Amino acid sequence: MIIFPAIDILGGKCVRLTRGDYASPEVYYDSPEQVSDLWKSKGAQYLHVVDLDGAKQGFPVNKAIVQNIVSKGIKVQVGGGIRRAEYIEEFMDMGVFRVVLGTSALEDRSLLEYAVNRYGDRVAVGIDSKDRQVSIKGWLETTEVRDVDFARTVKEMGVKTVVFTDISKDGTLKGPNFSAIEEIKRIGLDVVASGGISALEDVIKLKEMGIYGAIIGKALYTGDIDLSQALEVTLC
Questions:
Q1: What is the CATH number of the domain that holds 31?
Q2: pLDDT digits over 179-219, tens only?
């Protein structure tokens, strides 16, 4: 199982939100690049980078920061405001490991088809779920689409990997929504689990479930999870 330390960028700083609330961000580092160096020094080979400004505004805002992180030689999975083909191409050209489409995957099927046909598994779909309904536009708008139905749809379109986030769990340190994660996995997708991972036991359980990847955010910044230990248990 791949561990993705999370770096969420808002106003050029590394922050964490609770349940996606932009009104009360917790700033952990002034420099996202500094954080990428920290996680890399502890053994991380992958990072999950989210442009929160981009997710809210509808276009990538912090591309320069992402580029700086990519240049450090770590595999970067990036999302946030990637809603046009040119943005996908720009990130691919700068060498990101994978682009995550959220809002655009739901609202622009032709864009998702183009991206998957051209880039294959370098494109993932972010399924951000609130009460099992898909949320979009930086979690500011909830649709009537059920998360599991959306997962089936994107699988039929050729998507192999989804990033599943239970918004009610995100940033709470109260544990993931294991049942929802398992339901999405049963569809036949590689699932990157996100939201609420708060203890080493959560990481171990996700690995035992056969989950492809886990994004750990706030628990790394608070020290509730030691990254080196999390990486070690995934190798056992």
A1: 3.20.20.70
A2: 999 999 999 999 999 999 999 999 999 999 999 999 999 99
Give me the catalytic one of 21, 30, 93, 128. Answer: 128
Determine if the pTM surpasses 0.85. Answer: yes
Query: How many beta carbons lie within 10 A of that of residue 188, not counting itself?
Result: 10
Structural domains in the chain (count): 1
d(CA 80, CA 95): 17
Beta pairing, strands 26-29 & 161-166: unpaired
Asked if 1 and 201 count as a contact pair (C-beta separation under 8 A), the reply is: no
Q: Is 53 a catalytic residue?
A: no
Domain that holds residue 165: 2-235
Catalytic residue status for 30 = no
Angle of CA points 51, 53, 104, to nearest 5°: 70
- Cα(234)–Cα(119) distance, integer angstroms: 27
